[in-house]
Amino acid sequence: MAEEKKAAKKKSSEPRSIWRLLFWEALAAAGFYWFTHHALPPDWKGIPFKPNALFFLAAYPILFLYRWCGMEGFLGVLLAPFATVIGWILGASLYLWAEYAFLLASLPYAGILRSHWIGGGLLFIPVYLLFFRNLMGIGRLYYTMEECLALCLWAALGGGGGFWAGRLLDDHLQRTPFFENHRFILWLLLIWLGLVLALIIARKKK
Hints:
The chain is mainly alpha-helical. It folds into two domains: 12-143, no CATH class; 145-206, no CATH class. The chain has nine helices and no strands. The protein has helices at 2-12, 18-37, 49-69, 73-104, 109-115, 117-136, 145-172, 177-181, 183-205. Helix 3 (49-69) packs antiparallel against helix 4, helix 5 packs across helix 6 and helix 7 runs antiparallel to helix 9 (183-205). The chain is globular.
């Protein structure tokens, strides 16, 4: 147990790439620029996409640098709750980013994420903790570029497996009224389940 804690502590204090910080900040800045010059559809004007971009631009570097510095002692204990809160709010921020990405791509997921934000948010939590947080370099354990590529591969395999399972179910399951009414939701849940299981396996292999 002591060796595991020591290894985790050593891993969390490894140098983090400044390019990853600049990459995500550049994406957020591009998003903010886009929101400034492109109006939202009338039924989406109440969603705070633009303020969300500003929050991400300000909060993400703070948490990234906090994880990078690996503060210890009294200051580390004092700032730990603050970092935890920022981390969870960044998760909510990414949920909004995903919502807008689906909206921009004219995919039906955008409306689902907005209308069922409680359920969607609960399903998004493990995806954020196991995937996006590690890609952004703000987790307690730091993932190198090679490890991030492996994580993306696991995510693609898991999501693809869930999609295949949904297709198999769609082809062979008897077309009952329940299935017809919930076809899209069942397919989406299978993709989510495959993705999360793959990310859990990737986490255990790290």
